[in-house]
Design a protein that fits this description.
- A two-stranded antiparallel ribbon has the order 1-2.
- About 70% of the residues lie in helices and about 0% in strands.
- Helix 2 runs parallel beside helix 7 (about 140-160).
- The radius of gyration is 18 Å and the shape is elongated.
- It starts with 5 loop residues before the first helix and ends in an 8-residue tail after the last helix.
- The protein has seven helices and two strands.
- It has helices spanning about 5-30, 35-60, 65-90, 105-110, 115-125, 125-130, 140-160; strands spanning about 135, 140.
- By secondary structure, it is mainly alpha-helical.
- It has a single domain, classed as Up-down Bundle (Bromodomain-like), CATH 1.20.1550.10.
Length: about 170
Amino acid sequence: MLFNTTRQTNLMIFLGCCGLMATGYFMQFQLGLEPCPLCITQRVFIVLAGAWGLLAFIHNPKALGARIYGCLVAVSALIGSGFSMRQLYLQSLPADMAPACGPPLAYMLETFPFMKALEVMLKGDGNCAEVVWTFMGVSIPGWTLVAFVGLVAFGIWQVLRQPNNAAI
């Protein structure tokens, strides 16, 4: 059975995050959708949650370690979901209330001090308020939020479950 052991679940967390990143890169490079600062921030937390899943898969810890990795996955996904919700909020604003669009992220990183560029990246700008793609009426950050909720659920499940795989 799939997800029978904590190790299998951690592998699925990692592979799921790989799938999310592949989808993001497909949208960027094949569909020509340029990621906004909040999109990039969400990608960072997808990668972080996936990295915890991969480390847990490789490490294959006993009960306490599995719970710690589960917490790390859940917290990473929870923080990422906050950025998804921020972008959904920006997308829900009327056009005249949305923040102004900023320069591209590469330009900001080259020109502004790092902390200023990071602040813009975390808060988002007018580019983040634009809905450029939807599926079943839900925009990209909406689907990303769904993925983060799933990752939080898997992380919490890893914390609460009784591991049945003793590390060798």
